[in-house]
Amino acid sequence: MAFVSPTKRDQNGSYTFSSRPRPVEDRSKYREPPSEQTQSNYGNIMYDRRVVRGNTYAQQIIPTTALPDPVEVQRQQETRRRTVAAKRAREQCRTRTPEALQGRKHIDVQTDLYLEELSDVIVASDIECQTDAFLDKPDTPLFIPAKSGKDVETQIEEGELFDFDTEVQALLEVLVGKTVEQSLEEVMEEEELAGLRAQQRAFRELRNNELEEVLRLKEQERRRSKEKERRVAQQKEVLRKEREVAEKIAARAYTQQYLADLLPAVFTSLRSHGYFYDPVEKDIETNFFPWLMAEVNNSLEKRYTARALLDTIIDDVAHKRQEAFKDTQ
Question: What is the pTM of this model?
């Protein structure tokens, strides 16, 4: 049995399938053995397959015979967009109820011709039904094929079919020959494996020797390069020291040549400016002469003071005697 999709007529007038036919999956005639969850839900009507749940109305499927026109689809989409835009515009332009005043609130009221009592309690009633349980699948009977044909029998005496000693000789020859051949092949394989191992051993020794030689050459090359770098660095250091010595010698010669005429001129200039002097003369000029001048000034001041005092005394004595003389006359 196969599911066939709706047919369509092509340009030649013959009918063709919309999709390739596919076989329907085989379903068991009896139900599967119940699992633990199924056993726990046994007796619950919601898990019964014979109870219909959801929408019970069948939807009619009309097979399409041709592809839709793109222009028509675009026109329908445009019409749908215009309808939605007009509905939104009407909702925005619709006059809405103003907000309630302070202390009041809006409530919903019935505006129908006949009033209906509203309640939060929904009237509900429980209805139940009992369904028949599934029948368990009976045990599958043992398959016994039907008997056909007629039963006949015959008698075979000893030695009528074959002679064991004669017939078994060929088998023994084959078995012995095969065993010997297999043994020879195993011996040859072992010898070949031994030769391969010896060749691998020789190759491994040769490779190890070559690796040691390569390592020795690398180490020798490394020592040579290191010695070369050390010699180059040493030679550079010698050249640097020689260059420094040559620069120092040149600087010393230039300094001696420059100072040969500089020292006399400097000493003469310093001597003329008084930087080079006799210590005794400098001590006399800086210490003795100032002290001597100070002592001379003190002595002269004392002499000038004594003379002034003597002149004052003489002047007073002369005035007194003159006054006394005037009084005697």
Answer: 0.25
